[in-house]
Write a structure and sequence with these properties.
It is a single chain. Helix content is 36%, strand content 8%. The chain is α/β, with parallel strands linked by helices. The chain has a domain at 78-257: 3-Layer(aba) Sandwich (Uracil-DNA Glycosylase, subunit E), CATH 3.40.470.10. A 5-stranded mixed sheet has the order 2-1-3-5-4, sandwiched between helices. β4 (217-219) and β5 form a beta hairpin. α1 packs parallel to α6, α5 (110-121) crosses α9 (244-257) and α6 packs across α7 (188-200). It starts with 22 loop residues before the first helix and ends with a helix. The structure holds iron/sulfur cluster (SF4). Iron/sulfur cluster binds at residues 26, 43, 46-49, 52-53, 76, 148-150, 161, 164-165. The site of iron/sulfur cluster has 15 residues, from α3 and α6.
Length: 261
């Protein structure tokens, strides 16, 4: 596991960063973080969900054979991308041997290969590949984030884990709110998790919340437009449920509603 403050490229924490150990701590430390950088640091050392802490650290200890010479990140993965982004992309949770290994969201796994290639085609990433936190890749006008920040067993966080983690994303949203005009949500899990977050951050969320669909588009009054997209998981990309043109279309639509054409 990467020790906070030891020079990892995405590490916003230090040995003085306060550690959340309960959902109440998460709400307090997320709510009073004075900057996005401090928020990232605080969320990256969170230990509020015992099951997920045990899993992420166990994966970091045992590692996959192909990565046996690497030190896994083994901590919560934060959002990544400029604070003044006009587009946000919301996923689900880090992959055990992807973000949980590299310390950067969607980096080092097949889902990320798909996402970053598409972001590059859309002019939102400097490179089509994303292999490690020090690969030089830069995002342009887009920030990628997630509602659950620790890798969950079988990619399935519990409802209580999702709820415990929500204040990190709510606080992040408040920092992004002034500039983000389009939110691309990858998959039904992220879609369901995002609405309470947006409501808690003061956005005008319809009731009942809109149903998830690929291509769904919801323009919030005085707020961003939320776009639905199938998740870039191998389950969808290998089977052709999500194709490159389908993903490109959603990202181009996001550019349009964000005023970037
Ligand atoms: S899932 Fe979220 S709340 Fe739970 S330990 Fe990880 S960062 Fe903390």
């Amino acid at each position: 596991m990467i020790v906070p403050g030891t020079g990892h490229p995405t590490d916003a924490a230090s040995d003085a960063t306060p550690v959340a150990r309960t959902p109440q701590d998460v709400a307090r430390l997320a709510g009073d973080a004075p900057s996005l950088r401090e928020l990232d640091g605080r969320s990256s050392v969170c230990r509020a969900c015992p099951r997920l802490v045990a899993w992420r650290e166990e994966v970091a200890r045992t590692r996959r054979a192909a990565y046996g010479d690497q030190v896994y990140w083994g901590r919560p993965v934060t959002g990544w991308g400029p604070a003044q982004a006009r587009i946000a992309v919301v996923g689900l949770a880090p992959a055990a041997h992807g973000g949980n290994r590299t310390g950067r969201i969607f980096t080092g796994d097949r889902s990320g290969d798909w996402l970053f290639a598409a972001l590059h085609r859309a002019g939102l990433a400097s490179s089509p590949t994303s292999t490690s936190a020090d690969d030089g890749l830069q995002l342009r006008d887009v920030r990628i984030t997630l509602p659950v920040r620790c890798a969950p067993p079988a990619n399935r966080p519990t409802t209580s884990e999702r709820d415990a983690c929500a204040p990190w994303l709510t606080a992040e949203w408040r920092f992004l709110q002034p500039t983000v005009r389009a939110v691309v949500v990858l998959g039904g899990y992220g879609w369901a998790a995002l609405w309470p977050v947006l409501r808690a951050a003061g956005e005008s969320v319809p009731s009942p919340v809109p149903r998830f669909a690929h291509g769904a588009e919801v323009a919030l009054a005085h707020g961003p437009t939320v776009l639905g997209c199938f998740h870039v998981s191998q389950q969808n990309t290998f089977t052709g449920r999500l194709t490159e043109p389908m993903l490109d279309q959603v990202l181009l639509r996001a550019r349009t509603v964000a005023g970037m054409t």
